[in-house]
Amino acid sequence: MAYENILVERDPAISTITVNRPKALNALNSHTLRELTQAVRECADSRVIILTGAGERAFVAGADIAEMVPMGPWQAREFSELGHVLTALIEDIPSATIAAVNGYALGGGLELAVACDMIFASENARLGLPEVTLGVTPGFGGTQRLVRLVGKLRAKEMIFTGDWVDARRAYEIGLVNAVVPREKLLEHCRSIGQKIALKGPLAVARAKRLVERGYDMTLRAANRQEAESFALLFDTQDRREGMSAFVEKRPAKFTGR
């Protein structure tokens, strides 16, 4: 499919989706949100998806304020739902997702990043939820996912003040996995993606689901779910291949079956 505002490099192992509106600092308008949702669906058979932004200044600098200015409550609700559909999809697909945050990840940009399974930031990254400076709240899940990553106290400070944090501070509070030089960001993300792509895809997909769904369960219920998934994987070709390869001291060749 041809896209207007994003670039897509599809590959069975690692696909890359790039928001390509550098003149607008890759801001998310309705059309871009719809394109991202379609692209994520199309790439969901890849073992890993990397999300990033075009240019050197921004991952995604936020939602497109110019589009939001004339909105009334119903239009704003529809716009918010586009973001929620996209971020929920990123969490639900079996692919491991990695946000390569280069430059600004503000508002909807940070909300896009925190929906991913991992976040790696360049040294020039700036992350925050400044929506209160516009008189609104985060609208794509930021009030919920940020709390789950950094805790209520730090999340409230970021959300209530609208202040952003630099890459080092983001690492200190557990908002990003690592900080790397800008020129090595994609290379680092692809290296992590390659490690994941070589593992059992059914196992990675199950592990992702266990983490996401178990987070809001009681510990006992989540552990029961884990035990059931562990057992079900024993009836797969991948499990037999993985254990045989270990015993035979050779690399495993997983097929996702």
Main pleated sheet: 6 strands, mixed
- Tell me roughly what share of residues is in helical segments: 40-55%
Structural class: alpha/beta
Mean pLDDT: 96
* Unreliable runs: none
Brief account:
The protein is an alpha/beta fold. Helices cover 47% and strands 16% of the residues.
What report would you give on this structure?
- The chain has 257 residues and is an alpha/beta fold.
- The chain has two domains: 192 residues, 2-enoyl-CoA Hydratase, Chain A, domain 1 (Alpha-Beta Complex); 47 residues, Orthogonal Bundle (Lyase 2-enoyl-coa Hydratase, Chain  A, domain 2).
- The protein is built from eleven helices and ten strands.
- The strands form two sheets. It has a six-stranded mixed sheet, sandwiched between helices. A four-stranded mixed sheet has the order 4-6-8-9.
- α9 runs antiparallel to α10.
Key attributes of the depicted protein:
6-stranded mixed sheet; alpha/beta; 10 strands; Lyase 2-enoyl-coa Hydratase, Chain  A, domain 2; 257 residues
Q: Strands, helices and their partners?
A:
Layout: E1 6-9, E2 14-19, H1 30-42, E3 48-53, E4 58-60, H2 65-68, H3 73-92, E5 96-101, E6 104-106, H4 108-114, E7 118-122, E8 126-128, H5 142-150, H6 152-161, E9 164-166, H7 167-172, E10 178-180, H8 185-197, H9 201-214, H10 219-232, H11 237-247
Parallel strand pairs: 2-3, 3-5, 4-6, 5-7, 6-8, 7-10
Antiparallel strand pairs: 1-2, 8-9
Helix pairs in contact: 1-3, 4-5, 5-6, 9-10
